Amino acid sequence: MNSHKRSVFEASIATAKKVQVLIIPGGAIEMPADVFSDYSDGNVVKAKGFAILEYGLDMPIPIPDMEIEHDGIRATLSFPYGLHATFVPWSNVGLIRIIESGFTAVWNAPESAMAGGGGGGGIEIPKKDAPARSHLRLV
What's this model's pTM, rounded to 2 decimal places? Predict the structure, then answer.
């Protein structure tokens, strides 16, 4: 499963300006301890009991050292108090979402992460039975 997460992340980061990754606490995560608190700044989105980190090749605060490794994602990210080196193992990745298209791959995201909307920290996930939208419009 970890190789699948890596493949999805690599494809997403290559085609999108911004990719959200839901991080489940535990394991060998290397990042500030308070990243699982409620706040939003830099590369971290408001969260409750989990973190949603934002990665991209064209971010407002660049991530020039991002490395997609066999074991996880290593990058220096922006937090409210400055830049911090991070490492997220693939086993702690619960969801990958491309902001522009809404494409979402879910593995083991907690229910609280799926709440969406209302400032509750969740990520809005499209319903599986919803009809697919065309990306083309008549103008």
Answer: 0.71
